[in-house]
Specification:
This protein is of the alpha/beta class. The chain has 2 domains: 149 residues, Phosphatidylinositol (PI) phosphodiesterase (TIM Barrel, Alpha-Beta Barrel), CATH 3.20.20.190; 76 residues, no CATH class. It has 8 helices and 9 strands. The strands form 3 sheets. The chain has a 5-stranded mixed β-sheet with strand order 2-1-3-4-5. It has a two-stranded antiparallel sheet with strand order 6-9. A two-stranded antiparallel sheet has the order 7-8. Strand 4, helix 5 and strand 5 form a beta-alpha-beta unit. The longest helix has 15 residues. It is globular, with a radius of gyration of 18 Å.
Amino acid sequence: MPENTLVAFRRAVDIGVSYAELDVHASRDGHIVVIHDQTLERTTNGQGRVQDHTLAELQQLDAGYWFSLDSGQTFPFRGTRITIPTLTEVLRHFPSLLFTVEIKQTDPPIEEQVIAVVRDCGRAADVILASEHDQVLARARPLAPEIATSFASGEVADFIQYVGAAPLVHWGYCWRNPPCPSFAKGGDPKAPFCKGGRAQRGGIWKRGSNEENIRQQYHLWLTTKS
């Protein structure tokens, strides 16, 4: 399914997925839209930067234009009216899904608009705000202390250095959401944002360490930041 589209999220729900990740930018007129790249060429039939187009212009584009299951021989979703959705549309259409909302755009900042959408949709408890960029999360956290956030990439590197040099079991994408909110707060490690006591999209786990040890390491690391 074409990424970051309503049909993709609908398919996820249909096959039983409970947690999804999406990416956001802002349109020229300030709407938060769900798209991974800062430019339009890879996933749509448009050109240029997302932030240089109005929402009306963006939603005239074909968001399924380049999706192919056979390395570009056929494009089954072209012309099927798949558009770039707004974050509001996604959050309201799929109330059963939990989301990591990755803020891709850094300049101009869009954290306030993203948080406003999440609150307006009543989804603050169902969302993790994420970003690779430390400055994005540094701006977002004081604006919405009630909304969980991921680690930024700099924080991941710092935590890994703090934990030590022992070999790590998978840590790809670990800036997105480790540890999960309940785990970080010392609660039930198998709460909704977790799967089997671990963040769904990866985590930081030293070989030979159990969950309680990792929780202790995390809280000790937090004390070095205060």
